[in-house]
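As described in the Methods, two query proteins were run sequentially through the folding procedure within a single session, without resetting any intermediate state between them. The first query and its resulting structure tokens are shown here.
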Amino acid sequence: MKFYNRIDELNTLNDIYNQCQNSYGKITVLTGRRRIGKTLLAKKYAEDKDHLYLFTSKKAEKLLCEEFVTEYENFIKEKHIGTIERFSELFELLLKLGTQKKYVLIIDEFQEFKKINKSIFSEIQNIWDKYKFNTHVHIIFIGSIYSLMTDIFQNEKEPLYGRADKILYIKPFNPNTIKKILTDYKNYTEENLFYNYLITGGVPRYHELLYENGSFTKEKIIDQIFQKDSFFIEEGRSLLIQEFGKEYGIYFSILELISSGKTSRSEIESVLEKSTGGYLERLENEYDIVVKVKPVSQKKDSRNQKYTIKDNFIRFWFRFIYKNMTIIQNERFEYIKKLIERDISTYAGPILEKLFIEIMKQSPKYGLIGTYWEKGNLNEIDIVAIDEILQEIYFAEVKLNKNKIKMNKLKEKTENILKKYDGYNSIYESLSLTDIDRKIVEGNS
């Protein structure tokens, strides 16, 4: 699959490179979940520049340095005299090189140094502070374990705190990009876009794996996922087990419950029979996996809130794969497909709401965009958007089948929220799969 999107990120990286040329060295951090395309982005940016790429393997520091020195020698096109057994020695050589040569240094899976030798971060700090204003190297540290990369660069107790000039969090492809990819593969329909979004969440590597096998429709994607030795079956576990460590069991249980519709803390605790406040806080603030959702227009201190899983694939994995792992391990794939066919319509509703909200957020029109409900889950409204400048409030009911939408019922549910926005012009809309194209065009206009 060819390289898509990332124009803003490439522009940012190129701006930083120009700053390095005109002034002094810079550090950029690329982070985000695995398979999101961080390495591909860094290499795309560096392809027309002198650059050195180093991958941090899980091995002893001495062996890693031997590997890195070979790459260094190939880069400078001469043999290094002497041996290097500590990364700090090589790092200093690389910064010295930057005093004579403008280039890009990419160090991938940077968080692995925490297991290899924790003192490396302090050594890097000292060497960087020594050479920063004399070198012209643009250093890019890439890391896939979000919590570790955040701790390394944003924890004020850590030596590299404040040393990154820019931290770029790489996000999944947005609906516009998914549409473009499907169009390029001559398989675009609104339904295909939706189910690709629902299952992959816009993660580039998943698109690549599916499309290489001709899987574009809901049915073919599900067939591709639910088969013997499928890449996707263990993907959720491999993504998260390093993040959570020994306590992964309780985190997995919480995520399974959220994916199945138990979205409030009280609902989760009633099943697990234990306090989950600390776990939910870490899932939101440390691991960046769940997000706390409050009704549009609610006060910040309101306790009327729900939790949702940010990543569509992780949400799908916990709902349909992890929950049914015993059946999957017994290779009863046809049975799983029947379960999905039975449950997918109910599961898909909130994802379709999320898709339309994401599309609407591409437009500068509304300041607040989200959902609305009142205590006890009364008067739930799928999408509410507020424009304080034009004094306009937008309401939408979202269903897969537009024929099931009752606009009179939607208007009844808006009575209480409209009391807070007296004098605002109200707009009501019904949205279904057949409105995706139209909303994308509106969002781009």
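Immediately afterward, the second query was submitted; its sequence and tokens are:
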Amino acid sequence: MRGLNGGANNGRGGAVRRAAVYLRVSTGGQSAANQRPEVAAIVSTRGLVLVGEYIETASGGPTAARPEFGRLMADARAARFDVLVIWALDRFGRSMVGNLGAVLELDRLGVEVVSVRESWLDTGGPVRALLLAIFSWVAEQERERLGERTRAGLERARSNGVKLGRPERRIDLRAAVRLHAGGLSWARVARQLKVPSTTLARALERVKK
């Protein structure tokens, strides 16, 4: 957690409520910058004192590690902030069960969760838990449909003859064979030609066929 600080009158129940912010993007090419202004506005309008930020980048699939989320939960258990501000539930967790469990644990720890996109998170009582489960499920279904559409698009592209992925690097196979005949291993030949050894191996396999 970056930016945590101590100080008087910042404990739970005091006049000053400490806020932490969690921002997450799903791929390395994205930025959390578009989430930040609205999250900062909530911190400001509610008179919260920002004591830290957790910014998760390129968190990947459901089983990928989320170190910032882990630090967030550890700091929540250590009572280092009173309010957690997020941009949206689908940016907080990746599944209905995960979202529900994390938010309810924060509830038990006395940490209020505030979302830019889901104002109903401020609702108390059993209705809140029900709404949280419903909306987390909706977000999860939307992500699954997006993944299905992406996979369908890739399959259509492949069926139309479109080659996906990075273009294969061109290799001077004559030079490769000459270097290998001169006593170099294929791994050293690949280094000499400045290409990955796997790329060289695939090129040689194609020539053999």
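The radius of gyration is 25 Å. We note this only descriptively and draw no conclusion about the first query from it.
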